Amino acid sequence: INAEYGEFQTFQHYFKRINLRGRMADERITQRLTPKDQTLAEAYDLPANFLEIDVLNPETHGIGNKRYTDYEVRLKTNLPIFRIQECTVRRRYSDFEWLRGELEKESKIIVPALPGKALKRMLPFRGDDGIFEEEFIEERRQGIESFINKIAGHPLAQNEKCLHIFLTDAVIDKNYVPGKVRN
Q: Model pTM?
């Protein structure tokens, strides 16, 4: 045994040593990294790249069959692809439908669905306000906020002109020339 396994007297000593080495190696692999020192400013500063889009403050306008609800869309980012870092625009549901349609035509991404059109809520002789009920408006707001964040978070969609028009222009130019945004 000594000739074959060096300083070990028995197989048991040999395997104990291997087992201890294995455990030591495991402990090194799972050992916590020592955090680098950072200042409070670094810890609470904005991340290197961020994109925040909030859909909030729904407002219903008009009377009778001319009523509609629009939403405030607030963009905050430091991504270089966006020429404006902070912007607020108001958008109707139909504007979100326009954006979805443009992305389906022009981009190579799978475009997520928008919340449904709620046709049943538009029927006459309902006992409630239909699509102008606060609960429905809030549910739709959450759905379109999720939609726009999925879209804007996609690297390929971030290059599309229609997304930039939607997020930054006060009025959507539906006659724009489709294409990519250049930095």
A: 0.69
